[in-house]
Amino acid sequence: MQPLVLDIPGTPKNPFTLTIPVDGALLDLSDAEVRFPTPGTARVDVEPVNEGFLLTGLLEIRVQLDCSRCLAPVMRDVSEGFRIVLSRDPAGGDTDDDWVFLAKDERLFDLAPIVRDLILVALPAKPLCSDSCMGLCPECGSDRNRVQCRCTSIPVDPRWAALQSLRAHEDPPEREEAIHGTTEEKDIEEPA
Ligand SMILES: [Zn+2]
Ligand SMILES: [Zn+2]
């Protein structure tokens, strides 16, 4: 059997629960630059309802992303619930939930597209190893969380560039020495 395919017996009378492992490598998410260090799980309560089955699920999986500033690995635990009706009625029945048609003699339902969407929605647009991550130096590429390079250019928002050129004759403000090499709590002032 393929991973993430639920086997729904033809006409179950009572609710039941399926717990299935989620192997992220099989989700075809490599374009999203997300990796899966460990398998996750999808726990799905299956409840017979008039039009078919109500699936109430919880997806839990750990994902690994790259910090958008310094490229260090960033771990996130995704925990997302979902509700979906598997309808035996091609018109969907009278449900307000999202529904998927499942023909009368069909009992296999592939959960992979739903799991994939849940993960994509949960991913941060700009993952950060730390809110105060100082990123990589655009000139020498060194990790400014770990080393203070000698490069002079400080990337500035273009809207501030004019202001900075006004200040150019002044000495640059002293940079805090508190630059640590870890992702622990940091108390670094934002660059001026
Ligand atoms: Zn970072
Ligand atoms: Zn540099």
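^ zinc ion complex. The first strand starts at residue 5 and ends at 7. The chain has a mean pLDDT of 81.
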